[in-house]
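Usage

Read records sequentially. Each one opens with the input sequence:
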Amino acid sequence: YSFCTLLCFHSSLNNRFKPTTFTTLKTMPDLKKGEKIFKTRAAQCHTHNKGGSHGVGPNLWGIVDRKSGMVEGYNYTAANKDSGVVWTEENLFKYLENPKKFIPGTKMSFAGIKSEKERKDLIAFMATLKD
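and closes with the structure output:
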């Protein structure tokens, strides 16, 4: 990574979001916008605090790099449990565009987010939801 990329990540994201091939300097995600998108598009169904309860959907603490269908105490569909999907940033990016297309049979009744920038911002925020 270039010095500028590392400097930008270090100063603005407090080392909680690591650069990957998913992110580039040209399209740096905005954590504040990602948090706002979470509150307006996801919080009605999902919680995101460590140890938080499930809502209509599972708690999303630690979602990035977790295997689909594995949060204890949440009743997933067989489609999610058997998908074999690991929630990398790249997979979340595809899933959030059209969940029912990405995992046919999921019970998530979310139409998706068409904007690539909004999906990147949301995923950047979700990547901070970890120890």
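Summary fields computed downstream for this record:
- The chain is about 40% helix and 0% strand.
- Residues 31-42 form the longest helix (12 residues).
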